[in-house]
Design a protein that fits this description.
- The protein is globular, with a radius of gyration of 18 Å.
- α1 packs parallel to α2 and α1 packs across α12.
- It is built from twelve helices and eight strands.
- The longest helix is centred in the last third of the chain and has 34 residues.
- Strands 1, 2, 3, 4, 5, 6, 7 and 8 form an eight-stranded mixed beta sheet that branches.
- The chain starts with 10 loop residues before the first strand and ends with a helix.
- With about 300 residues, it is an alpha/beta fold.
């Protein structure tokens, strides 16, 4: 039976990116895991995928732990890494040494957890989103995670199966509509910007145009990214008002940079996520219970 053959309403988890704002998401997910909140499927974009995979592997605290441990390691994130390797976050260190040896990713639990997990990447030749299911957490899946989190300008294009990919946030930053099309009718959406936020046109577009000169379709996506993002925020709000989405967002701007390395700031954003989720825990349970009751009715 395929995913779409199931008739019962399915609950999904949708996680946007935001680089180090993703530690807000990590805090939310840890509280969900501590309280036994399980959903039928998950989709993550960029940091939402990189930190969200620990929800499928059921590793409470892992995301914040390795960020705090390696915050000052130049191989984790640094200008030196960008100059030396072409990636601000060194790929070998982040996607092999850390998950394989330094802070092991629990691949066995990840594989045994039946919850489907999808990452969103952007095909740089076509300028379209790609939704790839990652079931194993192995080296090939790590390439998809890397691609989803590879920011233009600060990362090389990631080659997988003869095609090139970059950050999924370029083409579908909040993939709620897509997840609904995939059969997840009621969704928990974790945003990393507060209510009322509106993205503005990037001032870095001239740099983007130069960096993506070989990929004009990818540049065109970046040129209208603010419009797409704001449109997706509007859609999330409509679904929230309709009772089809339970949205978790920070109460105010998290005020953290994309490459923040201050451990106090990293911890603050993580704790903000925990605090917000603790406050919303009972409301989330009611949302999920109403989904089950509707299916039984």
């Amino acid at each position: 039976m395929s995913d779409l053959d199931r008739r019962d309403p399915r609950t999904g988890l949708v996680m946007e990116g935001g680089a180090m704002r993703g530690l807000f998401t990590a805090g939310v997910l840890d509280v969900m895991m501590e309280n036994g909140i399980e959903l039928d499927g998950a989709i993550g974009v960029s940091a939402g995928a990189l930190f969200g995979c620990n929800y499928k592997s059921r590793q409470i605290g892992r995301s914040v732990r390795y960020n705090l441990r390696f915050h000052d390691n130049p191989r984790y994130c640094s200008l030196r890494s960008l100059i030396k390797t072409g990636d601000l976050f060194e790929a070998e260190f982040c996607y092999h040494e850390i998950p394989d040896r330094l802070d092991p990713f629990d691949r066995r639990t990840y594989q045994e957890n039946p919850m489907p997990f999808y990452v969103v990447c952007t095909d740089v030749k076509l300028g379209i989103p790609v939704y790839h299911r990652v079931d194993r957490g192995d080296d090939e899946d790590m390439k998809w995670f890397q691609a989803s989190g590879s920011m233009p300008v600060f990362s090389r294009v990631v080659e997988i199966g003869g095609r090139g990919y970059l950050d999924g946030g370029m083409s579908d930053p909040i993939p709620l509509k897509q997840f609904e099309k995939m059969g997840y009718e009621r969704n928990v959406v974790i945003l990393t910007q507060p209510e009322g936020y509106r993205k503005k046109k990037s001032k870095a577009l001239p740099v983007m145009k130069l960096a993506l000169r070989e990929y004009p379709a990818a540049y065109r996506v970046m040129a209208v990214r603010h419009q797409r993002y704001n449109g997706e925020l509007d859609y999330v709000k409509r679904r929230e008002n309709a009772g089809a989405a339970f949205v978790i967002r920070p109460p105010e701007s998290l005020g953290i940079g994309h490459t923040e390395r201050d451990p106090e700031e990293l911890g603050r954003v993580y704790e903000t996520g925990r605090s917000v989720m603790e406050q919303k825990l009972e409301a989330l349970r009611r949302f999920l219970d109403s989904t089950r009751e509707g299916a039984e009715g």
